[in-house]
Specification:
heterodimer, A: mainly alpha, 71% helix, flat, B: alpha+beta, 6-stranded mixed sheet, 6-stranded antiparallel sheet, 32% strand, elongated
Chain lengths: 307, 376
């Protein structure tokens, strides 16, 4: 029966081969490519060492890339998590119409973001857009006591998508609008997993306000959900691409203020056919995701594991 | 000083009536058990007393105050849940500290980082209370652990500790032992009774296990179909039930019920044999109830049957006897040396003083007169 000693290879073999071919191999190839100046169509490439990485961490274009990416991430993640939790708590407290709200908030998640981007482009249009047209109705009212508003009335309201002071925040706003419904659904699932008895115990123990029982029961019990929600929101925010590509097909927005990582990869590797530098940005991106995942795993195992 | 009274409590969930005007008076320091089959409304009654459920009608009073519309947190009652409901993210010490923090500290003193600085000495005093409660329950060495690292019995103690630590008016317990294994359950019964004697606080205990009710309580209320059928000392309920339903619910193995009849002169007949005299009862078909320990084996016994099953409990053996002319087997208690083997013929008598007679509606027909005569 010695032949059966290696039988396990037949069981894990297919999974191993698949994982290697479709996950690990491409990463290894990209890693290798990031040390070259390869272009698609060329028969060979030169080894350039760390030159590509050096560019990423020294040139101002890439400083803008990190700036735009982190601005987006640090606005979108807290807002989508916070709004997701808030909406979930509100919906959870409803006895009726909960499903209606659930559907409404989840609709943007289901919609194709590229199509929604086109709709938003019209909404934000400086002359025919609904946003600025609505803002103009407020002119001449008490709202003008707000200096920003008065300035908008006197001259013109911002060019939301093409002003470099506003562009990244406008794109972030669309990211929040699009993303918080997903977090809400995750939080709703987390809320249903909290035993009712714990709330009753908190009530018997003297929790007088909703805030008391939120702090004592809801928030700690949602710990594992929160870790998951934050990680997934971070990764999704790092991955933002559709809106940027739809609004600014060339160049990543006014003064490259919306030049996020995914778009940089696309621009370098596909539009300009500089596979080497594209692969290097991809490696940096992979590094971020890896760090986030490791932090998540550490949190799950250390802090929020109750069983 | 803090008696509890429930008046005409009604409750319905949608169309289903759960409680139909229940009255219950609990004296200060009593151990009361609400016992009944599942769905009888006992847990709902407890939760109405706790304030976790609002009654459709009726009033709840604790001491001299009407608390019908008072929030649970303001009633100063403590509850032990079937699931224990410990906070899984907090250590045992923090779990026990929680009710003290929520009650004795101001909102400012409970602020996340600032709070502990503001109330250091107060918190130390509260921690001493936790320590003394932990000592009473012998769980001091568990204090730093999380609930997830405890066994069922230990969690049970921690839940008790969390209830005990702030000296509530009464302890409410909702089937607290039903998640424990059989041996631990029996052990915890005596511990709970001991704890009650020591604390001298009112206990209101809900269970579906009549054995727990009989062993622990000062008084027990047998509930069925949203009503309290009988409320009294366990002994009285076991010996002197008001109805067939109570008689059948209390006692294990269950009471034997045999069809019989009362003849014109009040003579009680079972299978044509005269058993006792029921004075003042009209001629009617009845159900005769007799507990297994009140059937005695004797060679000259009036009833004969074949042993179908022997239930050996070590100290006693319960014989399941198929009696001719009866659809149900009769269960009788025998000592191990007199117990017959399987398939053997046995003859037995009924102890006429212990026969319980019920009319066709299940209401008790008392035989007080002959009992008095027998005693005289």
């Amino acid at each position: 029966m010695t032949g059966n000693r290696y039988a396990y290879l037949w069981f894990i073999g297919p999974a191993l081969v698949l994982m290697f071919v479709i996950l690990l191999l491409p990463i290894l190839i990209a890693a290798g490519m990031s040390f070259t100046n390869y272009s698609l169509g060329n028969s060979s490439a030169d080894f350039v060492g760390l030159e590509n990485y050096e560019k990423i961490f020294t040139r101002s274009t890439y400083a803008k890339m990190f700036g735009a990416t982190f601005r987006y991430v640090f606005v979108v993640v807290p807002m989508t998590v916070g709004l997701g939790l808030g909406a979930a708590l509100l919906i959870n407290s409803l006895t009726r119409f909960g499903d209606v709200y659930k559907t409404i908030y989840f609709l943007p998640v289901m919609a194709a973001l590229i199509a929604m981007a086109i709709v938003w482009e019209f909404a934000f249009h400086p002359t025919i857009g609904i946003i600025n047209a609505t803002l103009e109705y407020g002119c001449g009212t008490f709202l003008e006591s707000w200096s920003w508003y008065a300035k908008g009335c006197a001259r013109t309201f911002p060019l939301w998508l093409t002003d470099r002071d506003y562009a990244i925040w406008t794109v972030s706003f669309i990211g929040i609008w699009q993303g918080f419904g997903f977090n809400m659904v995750l939080y709703l699932a987390g809320l249903t997993g909290i035993p009712r008895d714990l709330y009753h115990a908190a009530e018997m123990d003297g929790a007088r306000s909703g805030w008391d029982s939120f702090r004592l029961v809801t928030w700690p019990m949602l710990g594992p959900t929160t870790v998951f929600v934050v990680t997934i929101s971070l990764i999704r925010s790092f991955q933002v691409f559709d809106t940027v590509e739809a609004f600014y097909p060339q160049g990543g927005g006014p003064s490259k203020s919306v030049y996020v990582m995914m778009f940089a990869i696309y621009e370098k590797a596909i539009q300009q056919n500089l596979m080497g530098i594209g692969a290097a940005i991809t490696m940096v991106f992979l590094g971020f995701v890896l760090i986030l995942t490791l932090i998540q795993r550490w949190l799950v195992e250390r802090r929020t594991h109750y069983a | 000083m803090s008696s509890i009274s429930l008046r005409e409590i009604t409750k319905a969930f949608g169309e289903t009536k759960v409680l139909n005007g229940v009255n219950l008076d609990i004296q200060d320091g009593e151990f009361i058990t609400l016992v009944g089959p599942s769905g009888c409304g006992k847990s709902t009654l407890l939760r109405i007393l706790a304030g976790l459920e609002t009654a459709d009608g009726g009033a709840v009073r604790i001491g001299d105050t009407d608390v019908t519309h008072t929030r649970p947190s303001a009633r100063n009652l403590a509850m032990v849940f079937q699931s224990y409901a410990l906070y899984p993210h907090l250590s045992v010490a923090q779990n026990m500290l929680t009710p003290l923090l929520l009650r004795d500290l101001t909102t400012a003193e409970r602020l996340p980082i600032l709070g502990p600085l503001l109330s250091r000495s107060k918190r130390r005093a509260l921690m001493d209370q936790v320590d003394s409660a932990a000592q009473t329950l012998k769980i001091t060495d568990l204090l730093p652990r999380k609930p997830g690292q405890l066994s069922g019995g230990q969690r049970q103690r921690v839940a008790l500790g969390r209830a005990m630590v702030r000296n509530p008016v009464a302890f409410l317990m909702d089937e607290p032992l039903s998640n424990l294994d059989a041996a631990l359950r029996v052990h915890m019964r005596s511990e709970l009774a001991e704890l009650h004697r020591r604390l001298k606080t009112t206990f209101v205990y809900v269970t579906h296990d009549q054995a727990e009710a009989l062993t622990m309580s000062d008084r027990m209320a047998v509930m069925m179909g949203g009503n309290i059928l009988q409320f009294g000392r366990p002994d009285d309920i076991y010996r002197d039930p008001d109805s067939l339903a109570v008689a059948q619910f209390v006692g294990s193995p269950g009471i034997n019920t045999i069809p019989g009849e009362i003849a014109d002169n009040g003579q009680l007949y079972v299978q044509g044999k005269r058993i006792a005299t029921v004075h003042g009862a009209a001629r009617q078909p009845v159900t005769v109830g007799i507990r297994p320990e009140h059937l005695t084996i004797s060679h000259t016994g009036q009833f004969k049957g074949v042993v179908r099953h022997r239930e050996n409990l070590g100290s006693d053996i319960f014989l399941h006897v198929a009696v001719e002319g009866l659809t149900q087997v009769a269960v009788l208690r025998a000592s191990p040396d007199q117990a017959a083997t399987l398939g053997a013929q046995v003859a037995f008598d009924m102890n006429p003083d212990r026969v319980l007679v019920f009319d066709s509606q299940g209401a008790r027909i008392r035989m007080s007169v002959p009992k008095m005569a027998a005693m005289a």
